[in-house]
Amino acid sequence: MTDPSTDPAAPAEAGALHGALLTLDSHIDIPWPDGEDPFEETARRLVDLPKMRRGGVSAGCFAAYIPQGRLDAAGHAAALERALAMLDRIGAIAGRRNGIEARICDTADAVEAAHRDGALAVMPAVENGYAVGSDLANIALLRRRGARYLTMTHNGHNLLADSAIPRRDLGDGQAPNNGLSTLGREAVAELNRQGMLVDVSHLSRQAMLDAAGCSAVPVVATHSCVAALCPHPRNLDDVQLDALRETGGLIQITAMPGFLRPRGADPAGADVASFVDHLDYVVRRIGVAHVGISSDFDGGGAIVGWRDASESGAVTAELLRRGYREAEIAAFWGGNFLRLLRRAEQVAAA
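Request: output the structure for the sequence above.
Response:
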């Protein structure tokens, strides 16, 4: 057998495959409050539409990131206002200019249709259930703005759940909710009713296990890595991975240097091989159907060999080099995530 690392045909094969795939990056941050025109390439942002086009990225989940604040009425009102404004900004990406068409897609079918038509698919999301506050009716409001998943917490606890990383500056204790709160469990049920995925990235270990156990739709960690390879509090351990397998859930490995290399190793050395090491681990532990790809670009993600959206083909090349088949690579690059979206749509329609 020819060694793919020395085969001169390998780069061409990888490029052809990558160009044909529906590739979905499940977590991208947007500029806020000021942002460049997404149809124009800029050096400051790691993701814009020209970089997506050049890097063969078919679709991206663009997140309205809400920083954690005080758990009071004023804080919750400001968080909701910001979330809605950011979702409006994401919605405004739709259009056609400079030879690029972008579509706002809030169903799996719409993403696939955009790919068939040569358009880039933009899927809105919200990062941090702090925007929900104490009023679960706000979940429907976010969904009407197009959001297809809610990251239950960010750094810092909120009324829904405990975070993997408490905010001491906000007075956080270690685990005031002991996982998901009663309101958090009700929020999971409402997310299920609205057809929104439950994103367990940023949750504490217990909160993540609670969410996986109580959600009618398999949960997804849209931007996390593996604790066995890098013991960071944001990463999932083997018990959590096994819970994903048992419930049909999904972890989207992310290009965050500090999540990829263990403490003591220089995170600047994180590269595409490190990234695929984490994906390999999940495949061996719980199977191909339970892992996918995210960048967290413009939210801290960027590694050697995959520094922005234009270099996304490097991930496909490394997967091919390690012997993954086309169907498996397609599953990692979006097939698994779209399957969960369809399941959420089915539950919401029932």
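The domain at 10-349 is CATH 3.20.20.140 (TIM Barrel).
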